[in-house]
Amino acid sequence: AQSVTQPDIHITVSEGASLELRCNYSYGATPYLFWYVQSPGQGLQLLLKYFSGDTLVQGIKGFEAEFKRSQSSFNLRKPSVHWSDAAEYFCAVTTGGGNKLTFGTGTQLKVEL
Amino acid sequence: DAGVIQSPRHEVTEMGQEVTLRCKLISGHNSLFWYRQTMMRGLELLIYFNNNVPIDDSGMPEDRFSAKMPNASFSTLKIQPSEPRDSAVYFCASSLVSTEAFFGQGTRLTVV
Lengths: 113, 112
Description:
A: 113 residues, mainly beta, six-stranded mixed β-sheet, four-stranded antiparallel β-sheet, B: mainly beta, seven-stranded mixed β-sheet, 0% helix, globular
């Protein structure tokens, strides 16, 4: 069965610093991968997705993620964090074909001014 | 499109009462997911449908929980009878098969 691991529960960065949130997945074939962001009291908003092709994908709000098959990873990055990026970030995987979307446990990002 | 619409946004009910959560899918989407979010357990997939057919309900915690899709654009999640441990935020999400899921704003359920 597919699974997603986000090893960092909490991360604190200073505004303007770079950010990397880790995500590892478990699935035998090529998965469909996503990053979502959730602000307090809100639903989940899609940041970016990877289905196939270029392994470096660009998303909204200046985020990017890189799919590395050899490491079963799909880490999220941003070169310069803004205070408004403080939120919870979820990595998710599906195997496609109408199969279920499985989420990681999330990483809570705090931004220090 | 207005996105995925959930109602109510907040629900407070007494233990033992029936609770019905509602979800309107984005027009044209054919997959529907119900998730529950709590501090302790994070985001849990309860059930998902493709083309109105339940595909996997293994996440439904007990027989007290049931979900339906009476038509292609609407779903309900019912809890009967409700218990305090059911208190959580319930999200529904819709997608086209094999594409990204779009989430509603959630229903915050409190069972007292």
